Amino acid sequence: MVVFLFGIAKDIVGKSELDLSAFERKLNSVEELICFMNDSYPEFSKLSSLAVAVNGEYASNGVLLDSNDEIALIPPVSGG
C-alpha cells in the first residue's frame, strides 16, 4: 500500500510518499489509515479536513483497503 501526500500533509510527514506494505499491522479501511496517520504524525489531527482518494477515486472512511492500493491524502488548499 502506497500513500501519496500533498500540501501540508507532505510537510507534516517530511516526504511525498509512504510505503506501508511492510507495516506489520494491516490497515483495513480509510478510517484505520487516518487513525494511523494521526497516531504516527500528531500534526495530522490538526488538519481541518482531509480528502482521501483510493486508486484515483475519492473515498469515505468506510472504504476498505487492499495491500495493492494507491492512496492520496489531500489536505485543504488555500490561495487565490
What does this structure look like?
- This protein is of the alpha+beta class.
- The chain has one domain (2-74): Roll (Ubiquitin-like (UB roll)).
- The protein is 22% helix and 22% strand.
- The protein contains 2 helices and 5 strands.
- Strands 2-1-5-3-4 form a 5-stranded mixed β-sheet.
- A hairpin with a 2-residue loop joins strand 3 (51-54) and strand 4.
- The radius of gyration is 12 Å and the shape is globular.
- The N and C termini lie far apart (34 Å).
Put simply, the count of helices is 2
Low-confidence stretches: none
Largest β-sheet summary: 5 strands, mixed
Share of β-strand residues: 15-25%
- Across the major sheet, the strand order is 2-1-5-3-4
State Rg.
12 Å
Any descriptors?
single chain, 80 residues, alpha+beta, Ubiquitin-like (UB roll), 5-stranded mixed β-sheet, 5 strands, 22% helix, globular
Topology (SSEs and partners):
Layout: E1 2-5, H1 7-13, E2 17-19, H2 30-40, E3 51-54, E4 57-58, E5 70-74
Parallel strand pairs: 1-5
Antiparallel strand pairs: 1-2, 3-4, 3-5
How would you summarize what this structure contains?
The chain has 80 residues and is α+β, with helices and mostly antiparallel strands.
